[in-house]
């Protein structure tokens, strides 16, 4: 495989992985480890298996159809692509406000400046990625560098916390308890499409590219999984010693309790890296869902992405994180995956969309299982959140 292709495949893999590893990811992993202890390893294992099924289904159909998810949706059912794009942009904006806030917190830990000032500084970094001529290549390399930095720092803290590795391995296969909602929370939502769309933009498409697509999809899941596993081990090392995490900022307290003030500063770097890469990935993915509807957006894609980042930042700086919008986006995100994955599976069997391509039956069965489980639990989550939205 040519070096150029490797760069594109790794870029798409890291874009998906680092976009998924945002402030919420850090907090969820830490909180679930506190609740489930070593048994959280089982949740991680199941979520990795489900993610592999989701990614391979989505990325393969995008590649062979040579179309983005919203265009595939419109071919399955006219108008569905526009509806999905609306949900994606709404969710992407809400999550990006959270990402901007997380980046502000990272700078606050590192430099002592306010979260608002840190958010503006982080936004400037993210905007810088899209100001260069070859923004796609810069985005790929930025995601790779930040992803590797996060892995190294989290591995260091995991080693420092001295977790009970033997127990973690045992409970991964023989858990004391299983939290199904934790599994649903960990399985990717709209950001699943980040890498698939990036490969399409980079020209990796068609049946002949399927092996490369598979490699990139699995690599992305592997990167995100490595980060989550070592973050889990770091938190487990702290929790297993009976130390109490700060409820206001669980992941920061893991780093501090494991490695002292140095660990706390490292948390600032990890939080900043996770948040800025998520800002970049979320903005790119959200705009990729609407650019096929407008020649103007397609022509000025980078400027639209920059505008998306600036709007997210402005909302955070002026009114903070709008709770109801974040609740709604989180609840809707639980429905986006089964809806989009379902239509992808339908499209996989339409010759008008995928030509002579034959989708692997095992992937279809696996995908349908994920659709059913996620639809039920996503609907339940949305029903639970309705009272909070109507307050």
UniProtKB/TrEMBL annotation:
The keyword ATP-binding does not apply. Keywords: Membrane, Transmembrane, Transmembrane helix. The chain crosses the membrane at residues 36-54, 75-97, 109-130, 142-160, 180-200, 221-244, 264-290, 302-319, 325-349, 361-383. It holds the Pfam family Nramp. GO terms for cellular component: plasma membrane. GO terms for molecular function: cadmium ion transmembrane transporter activity; manganese ion transmembrane transporter activity. InterPro entries: NRAMP_fam. GO terms for biological process: iron ion transmembrane transport. It is found in: Membrane. It is a multi-pass membrane protein. This is Divalent metal cation transporter.
